[in-house]
Write a structure and sequence with these properties.
single chain; 606 residues; mainly alpha; 3-stranded mixed sheet; 64% helix
């Protein structure tokens, strides 16, 4: 009897394994029977093809899957072509599922995924129209930052993975170089200032002794916290890390330095993408992808000029009422930016005080947000300094989302390279935008959604994400957070002016053939920002065409949708519900977001 039961047991197990195998083959190599499986298939395909992204998300380590932590993402042209082919196939497979048989949630997911993948397919013809190594991002600065801040060092095994990734860097650099040479053959090379700044950054990086490099110093600090290592083991690992830096990492950097040194004499000071093959069409594509609207460059340029004029009038009123009557706005803001009342000392104590003030502002915003939001994300948020090795060419601040498994909080990074650039009256708005209730609420809420495909929690739509962050600056004003603080409100308007000016200068550079210097002069005049910050920003727009236009376009759309909700719902309008509608579907193209809000209005009216 026992043998018979055992026989049937093994038969059932074998049958289950066969069913699972058939299911896995269908899901991996063919269009899955289930649409929900297809959603996850697309997410998993991308995820397991990008080991660095997989490490950043912290999604699979909890299941004991860790091998990816010893590998680096493939940057080769062949891999890029493979991804393009897969994208085309995924779009065709997605459209093969009948919409009539999908639930409302599935139809929304399908609409979002279709919009996103279609833009990628449209952009395949422009896949080389970028500068993968530039003053803001690229393997030369993202790799050290990734290793110091994202690569896990929680156990001895993670230290071995760290060494494996250091050893894999030369291949990754060779792949990047292959892509750079291919772009050069197609007439796509970065402007001269980009090459000059990249060369300085990399030369400085390899000019340090291996033991002093961030790759070694961050490893030493973090490995010291691994309890399962003794001092001898730590010393041995540290020596191996420093050897890898000197024998593998630095020579890889040197090859990239040599390439850009040879390229420098061939570069020009033409900064806009109009200079690239089919540059006008490429820029139109970038605007469509980034703003998720069909606004053309001339329309966006005109919108920017109109918003600049409106915001100038509001700033003028505050300045006139607070001791700056008759002074030009740019000059007044410049004076306020240098006013000792609003500055921290340019030393370590001043930097610590600034970080403490940002933390206080975010803690206060978290408390106040309970009145404005029905949903508060569970993930924590911290304030940290932008790593010193990348601060010179980095933005004033940025936000990094928390790990999906909760092992890393959301982080608001503040650039403390020069404390003269940080006026206290500008800090509240920056804290609200990058931290709470801006990027932290949007990204953390999306990650914590239940019952949605993973791609809906992670898919990037700049107009939505940055539009939301800019909307929250206005929301803080609307909620009274600036009461009694006219200069703080002026900082909010300066931030809004900054985004309005972006519409003008981005389209100016890439469509109207403005020079870098012309764009810098316009932003300096209109914003009163420091010259270092302005220069860094303009140079950012040059290497990321169209991205900066998404902020203001997104904000204006969300405010438009709120105003429509208020007008049509009257006393039934609840901003907490409105914020849930905007946030609890994850990131959306603006046209799909508008449809969701319209449906909310109709439901609420009943």
């Amino acid at each position: 009897m026992f043998k018979r039961v055992l026989k049937w047991f093994f038969a059932i197990v074998a049958l289950l394994l066969l069913v699972l195998a058939v299911f896995a083959v269908n899901a991996i190599w063919f269009r899955p029977w289930s649409l929900n499986v297809f959603y996850e298939k697309i997410f998993v395909e991308v995820l397991f093809d990008e080991p660095e992204l997989l490490s950043s998300l912290g999604l699979v380590e909890q299941f004991g899957i860790t091998g990816h932590n010893g590998r680096l993402s493939d940057e080769s042209p062949a891999q890029q072509q493979k991804q393009a082919e897969r994208t085309r196939k995924n779009l065709a497979d997605l459209r093969a599922y009948s919409l009539d048989r999908q639930s409302a949630s599935q139809r929304l997911s399908t609409s979002v995924l279709d919009w996103f993948v279609e833009r990628q397919v449209e952009g395949e013809k422009y896949q080389w129209h970028n500068y993968p190594v530039n003053q803001l991002f690229g393997v030369q600065n993202q790799f050290p930052s990734f290793m110091a801040n994202t690569h896990r060092l929680l156990a001895p095994r993670d230290c071995e993975y760290y060494l494996q990734r250091l050893g894999a860097l030369p291949l990754k650099f060779d792949q990047v170089l292959e892509g750079l040479r291919l772009r050069e053959q197609k007439g796509i090379t970065p402007p001269r200032f980009v090459v000059e700044k990249v060369l300085k950054e990399m030369t400085d990086f390899v000019g340090q002794k291996p033991a002093e490099n961030i790759l070694a110093s961050s490893f030493k600090t973090r490995a010291a916290k691994i309890g399962k290592l003794n001092d001898e083991e730590r010393g041995d690992l540290q020596a191996r890390v420093e050897t890898e830096i000197g024998t593998r990492v630095y020579p890889a950097y040197q090859k990239l330095i040599e390439y850009f040194s040879d390229l420098l004499p061939q570069t020009t000071t033409d900064d806009g993408v109009w200079k690239l093959p089919d540059g006008e069409a490429f820029y139109a594509h970038q605007l469509h992808q980034n703003t998720t609207t069909t606004l053309n460059p001339n329309e966006i340029h005109a919108l920017g000029l109109s918003e600049v004029a409106r915001i100038e009038a509001e700033m003028r009123a505050i300045l006139d009422a607070n001791g700056f009557a008759g002074q030009p706005i740019g000059a007044a803001l410049d004076a306020l930016g240098k006013d000792e009342r609003f500055l921290f000392p340019n030393d370590d104590a001043g930097r610590a005080a600034a970080l403490a003030e940002y933390t206080r502002l975010i803690d206060q915003a978290l408390d106040r947000s309970t009145q404005l939001f029905a949903t508060i994300p569970k993930a924590k948020v911290e304030v940290r300094r932008v790593p010193e090795f990348k601060q010179a060419t980095g933005p004033g601040a940025y936000y990094e989302a928390p790990a999906l498994d909760g092992t890393r909080p959301g982080v608001f990074f503040a650039n403390l390279r020069d404390m003269a650039e940080i006026a206290k009256w500008g800090m509240p708005t920056l804290a609200y935008h990058e931290g709470v209730p801006g990027h932290h609420f949007q990204l953390a809420t999306a990650q914590e959604l239940k019952g949605l495909p993973q791609f809906r929690k992670l898919i990037p739509f700049t107009a939505y994400a940055e539009g939301w962050a800019l909307y929250t600056e206005w929301l803080a004003k609307n909620a009274g957070w600036y009461e009694g603080d006219p200069f703080g409100d002026l900082g909010r308007l300066q931030g809004e002016m900054f985004r309005a000016v972006r519409l003008v200068v981005d389209t100016g550079i890439h469509a109207q053939r403005w020079t870098r210097e012309q764009a810098i002069a316009f932003m300096l005049e209109k914003t009163g920002m420091g010259e270092k910050d302005v220069t860094s920003e303009i140079e950012r727009y040059i290497v990321s065409p169209g991205q900066a236009c998404a902020y203001k376009v997104g904000m204006l759309k969300i405010r438009e949708l709120r105003a429509r909700s208020e007008q049509e719902l009257g006393a039934k309008f609840d901003q907490r519900e409105f914020h849930d509608v905007v946030l609890k579907n994850g990131a959306l193209p603006l046209e799909i977001l508008e449809r969701q809000v319209n449906e909310y209005i109709q439901r609420k009216k009943v």
